[in-house]
């Protein structure tokens, strides 16, 4: 196996574990999943940047490494750090208020989602949503 294949496999494992953890109801696991996704993104940027080369500072322009993927990786690190700090603050606040780490199902939100499933006007843009037409339809029922 080559180094690139090992990095691709490591990136795929980190990505799949991160998505699995993001789908959990525990806020701490969501944070860990987000961190794994951030690390897999950094590995993806490292893989996609190509083979290692000379630094872009100095002599000739032959065989230099493109600095743009490195800048993207640094930006991704900063964004991941900022969002994870925000998530950590949310987790701390949730723990202080309710001593719970799990996200509960919001009954009102579930009811709204169920109402939208029953109403075909939300999904089909061709259905007339004119208020008079809706009132006439409701009156005919």
Describe this structure in words.
This protein has helices spanning 3-22, 27-48, 68-98, 107-118, 131-140. With 141 residues, the protein is mainly alpha-helical. The chain is elongated, with a radius of gyration of 24 Å. The relative contact order is 0.09.
Summarize, please:
By secondary structure, the protein is mostly helical.
Give the radius of gyration. 24 Å
Using DSSP, what is the number of strands? 0
Can you summarize the main beta sheet? none
By DSSP (H or I, 4+ residues per run), the number of helices equals 5
Mean pLDDT: 83
Which series of helices and strands comes N to C? HHHHH
Strand content: under 5%
Shape: elongated
Which structural class best describes the helix and strand composition?
Answer: mainly alpha
Tell me the span between the first and last alpha carbons: 68 Å
Low-pLDDT segments:
none
State the helicity in percent bands. Answer: 55-70%
Per-chain topology:
Blueprint: H1 3-22, H2 27-48, H3 68-98, H4 107-118, H5 131-140
Summary tags:
141 residues, mainly alpha, 67% helix, 0% strand
